[in-house]
Amino acid sequence: MGGTVPKELRFTLKGSTPGTGSMIIRILYSNAGSRAILKDGTEIAYNPWDDKKRAFGEVTRTTCGNNRYMGEKNILEFYLTEGCELNVSPRDAIQTLVRMEWSVDQFFSEGGTSTFAERLAGSLGIHMSTVKVVSVYEGSLVVNYELAATKDEPLKLEEIQELQTQKFATGKVDVGAPILDVAITKPPSLQPKGVSAADEEPENVV
Prior knowledge:
Layout: E1 9-12, E2 22-28, E3 35-39, E4 42-44, E5 49-50, E6 55-56, E7 67-70, E8 75-81, E9 85-90, E10 94-100, H1 104-109, H2 112-124, E11 131-138, E12 141-147, H3 157-169, E13 179-185, E14 203-204
Antiparallel strand pairs: 1-9, 2-8, 3-4, 3-9, 5-6, 7-8, 10-12, 10-13, 11-12, 13-14
């Protein structure tokens, strides 16, 4: 796309014989906002994280909507088949970047993303289902993750936002290594009226 990618997108592949044509679509975004692929109004989750590849599993040509997010490059990738309609919409999630005094190899040798999510959820006192790691890369070690409300978590998103900010600011979060920086971006539902996720500046907490 030549300009800013629209917040809401709809994709459909039309042809004479539904199910015979298909393509894999990649969208390059200018920022690391959270997006969801929706089919018939239901979100299709990213492919499972693969600690060996240190990324979400590759998109497969199995079902329409199969998708992944490449966090380092800000690319959303998904599979579209003929006769299928997909929507791309902002995901109502708290985006957080944590920089730690650790190497990527140490991170994955100590349990990787699943252990990180367990430690984070335990420190915050929230259900592990709310945590989704989006990307892991060097610098010293950077982990980007999202927190979203789930049926297993009684706290509202606003309460989770306040809890996380307070815990990080007071040094009460243990994710396995010394924390150097934390930046939190509010979810769309908590942003000021008229402000989009692309305009919202992350809040530096640590």
